[in-house]
Amino acid sequence: MSQATPLPVPARHKQPLVRHRSRKGTQAAFGSVRKLPSGRYQARYSDSRMDRHTARQTFATKKQAEDWLATVRADMVRGTWRAPELGTGTLAEYASDHLARGILRSEKPP
Hints:
Strand order of the largest sheet: 1-2-3-4
Shape: elongated
Largest sheet: 4 strands, antiparallel
Order of helices and strands: EEEEHH
Distance between the termini: 100 Å
Radius of gyration: 26 Å
Number of strands: 4
């Protein structure tokens, strides 16, 4: 039994078939980074409910903004991400504060 030799691939098929135009901002798989008129960079992303969030700070470099987006994405994957408008307090902190004040629903004010 003889072994078949592969056919040569024409040179025209080695070139990419689709050429992409450059964008002003960078669109990643998660979020986007855009350059502001000030020269700094702004990072934005959408959460699972498709609510749009913008980083509270701007970044000196595009890489810093992309790294920040990667951190937010990692937090979402781990399940530790919180919507920025919810604040930084946790349920445990709230419950501890609530119990420390001795506030109970069954108690009536004097």
